[in-house]
Amino acid sequence: MSQLDELRGQIDDIDAQLTSLFLRRMEVTEQVGRWKQANGIPVLDTAREHEVLAKKAALTNDPARKDDVTALYEAIMGISRRQQRKLLTEAGNEDYVRIQSALRAVRDPLADPRVLYQGEPGAYSDEAAGRFFGEIVARSHVATWEEVFLALKEGRADYGVLPIENSSTGSISQVYDLLAQYGAYIVGEQTVKVDHCLAAPAGATLDTITAVYSHEQGLLQCADFLKGRNWARVPRLNTAESAQYVSRSGQPDQAAICSPHAARLYGLEILAEHINANDHNYTRFVIVSPVPEHRPGSNKVSALFTLPHRTGSLHQLMTIFAVNGLNLMKLESRPIVGRSWEYLFFADFIADLAAPGMDGVLLELTQTAEGFRVLGNYPAAKEG
Q1: DSSP per-residue string spanning 258-316
Q2: What's the average model confidence in pLDDT over 37-46?
Q3: Which H or E element spans position 178?
Q4: Which of 37, 246, 342, 374 has the fewest CB neighbours in a 10 Å radius?
Q5: Neighbouring residues of 209: CB distance < 8 A, sequence distance ≥ 6
Q6: Could you report the per-residue pLDDT of 268-282, keeping only the tens digit for each?
Q7: Cα dihedral across residues 364, 345, 352, 92: positive or negative
């Protein structure tokens, strides 16, 4: 027998011992997992994991091997977590089971959808619907955001288009609250640039104008343009309704601050363009459905969750995103009605729930949070 064969034989003996010890370790790991399951303890305890890895690195006095020992135990502990997650799956985590059931029930995008938005024709919501579904799509409108959710729930519409965030003024809290209340799903998003113009009936000029109509935010966003002009500023329901009102009046002394789309729709002449002070102002709209979908290119996840009243619970949940390399794009909290000082969290992160390994991540998130619900997995929109 050559020296090389002898050395290989020694390695085989060591590997046999390692395998035996590894299998014994996994038996104990399973017992730990069952104890965690019975006591509601999350699979991942980051602080303890760091402490354990430091202990394992200290098992060798060879500085050159400390990183290798750490890498070995990172791999072993990763296998241990997967085993413990499997136990939780078998036990039937309610949130996880509900999420998986919803993901299995996804439908294909509808070919001839009934689309609903809030506001008047020509509103930015109308523009968002046209951009997402195509201008020829049949769409109707209602007066309030809640009416959109009610129509979806009652089967009177297939999709709703709702503003959820503005790059200048932030999140639209009421829409977040309605998403939580009605259990709808986000299946897409569309951004629209807020680009106000001053529009008036034919024959009007800047010199004939005495009153300007718009939503109060429209008037505020165009305050620099209006400064020094002795025009009455009259708030209306929204920018599109303002354009409609001015068009119906036909008076050359009245003008509306609205989108160019609304101005064209209501036959108004544009007297001044790009009059809002912030030229980088976008509104993000979500496409909402009563049924989940998974469209090609889905790379963004929206979710909501609550947390137990336990020190470090939010940090523990955020660690799951960090450990799994998930880019958390947004985290928003909203008070829970009827439960003082308790909050509902909304999160957006980059991921595809159909990707390998995401089942384990979802399981860990549902175990760490008190309640966890996926609002949707959809393609992230580009600005404009």
Answers
A1: E-HHHHHHTTPEEEE-S-SS-SS-EEEEEEEESS-B--TT--EEEEEEE--S-TTHHHH
A2: 73
A3: helix 173-182
A4: 342
A5: 198, 200, 229, 231, 252, 253, 254, 255, 271
A6: 999 999 999 888 889
A7: positive
| 345 assigned to active site | no
Give pLDDT, residue 383: 65
Residue range 187-212: average pLDDT? Answer: 96
Q: Please report which helix (H) or strand (E) contains residue 32, including its range.
A: helix 3-39
pLDDT range class, residue 363, cuts 50, 70, 90: confident
Helices 46-57 and 313-323, interaxial angle, to 10°? 60
* Cβ atoms within 10 Å of 256's Cβ, excluding its own: 32
Average pLDDT of the chain, as a whole number: 89
Looking up tokens 């008047």, which residue turns up?
Answer: 120
- What global pTM score does this model have? 0.75
Instruction: Please tell me the distance from the alpha carbon of residue 107 to that of residue 96, in angstroms, as a whole number.
Output: 20
Give CA 145 to chain center in angstroms. 18
**Chain-centre distance of CA 246, in angstroms?**
37
**Which pair of structure tokens corresponds to residue 8?**
């290989």
Give the model's pLDDT for residue 105. 83
What six digits make up the tokens of 36? Answer: 């965690």
The tokens describing 16, both together, are 């046999």
More reliable by pLDDT, 263 or 281: 263
The answer to whether residues 283 and 238 touch, using CB atoms and an 8 Å cutoff, is: no
| Residue 131 to residue 200: CA distance in whole angstroms | 25
- Structure-model confidence comparison of residues 238 and 84, the more confident one: 238
**Residue 254's beta-bridge partner residues?**
211
Tokens of 232: 């009455």
Active site annotation includes 132: no
Residues 132, 133, 285, 321: which is the catalytic one?
A: 285
Give the C-alpha distances (Å, rounded to integers) separating 25 from 30, 52, 229.
9, 14, 79
Catalytic residue, chosen from 29, 133, 149, 283, is: 283
